[in-house]
Write a structure and sequence with these properties.
By secondary structure, this protein is mainly alpha-helical. Helix content is about 60%, strand content about 5%. The chain has one domain. It has a three-stranded antiparallel beta sheet with strand order 1-2-3. α5 runs parallel beside α7 and α7 runs antiparallel to α8. The N terminus is likely disordered.
Length: about 250
Amino acid sequence: MNRLIILLLLLVSFLNINAQNTNIDTLKRKPSTRFNYKSLIIPSVLVGYGVFGLENHSIKLLNETTQGELSEHIDSRFTIDDFSQYAPFLSVYAFNALGSKGQHNFKDRTIILGTAYLIMAGSVNILKYTGNVRRPDGSSTNSFPSGHTATAFMGAEYLYQEYKNVSLWYGVSGYLVATGTGLFRMYNNRHWLTDVAAGAGIGILSTKIAYWLHPFIQKSIFKDKGVKNGMVFPFYNGSEFGFSACITF
């Protein structure tokens, strides 16, 4: 199963995604970039639950109970979450390569993804290395929040935003994969429920913020710069997974 997932990711990500029709005015697609406080409710509740659970006895007990129930049914570990965290955002490039156009062209969607990833990674790492939450398996004290889950939900919201005007099912599929990633982080005894909840909220918020910031970034940093071509691909250095983007202007 893992080999199949790796092959699928490599097949998708090493596609040379030429920025066809780079002169298309993204505004003609009328992407939604307006600030909407209502869209902050769900991710804020998720982050709030995770933070509140750091000190709340009842939520800590729920963490332990949930983890205990999972441990009773764990026969073997599945590392699918190491790969599934990237599936939602890589799907955006795969769908575009297959001819299904999203909200933005290659340049703009890559800028948005990069912005979201920086916000998400920065937030997660600050919390991980300033907190002191031990993982369920006892391997380290940087359990809170779940970086895998944050990455997956960042990608799920990114997939939803790019294709919500095409079909709701694109977003649904992305969120299903992201939810599965969070569950596997718990199943593999790497994270508590509060870690996963906070990671999901951070991931969603990061993408929403990236879309709201995009008009400013586009006008102030990337104005009048066209993209000739680019590639997005994952990497693995023996201990860590990630992704890289190569863009030619």
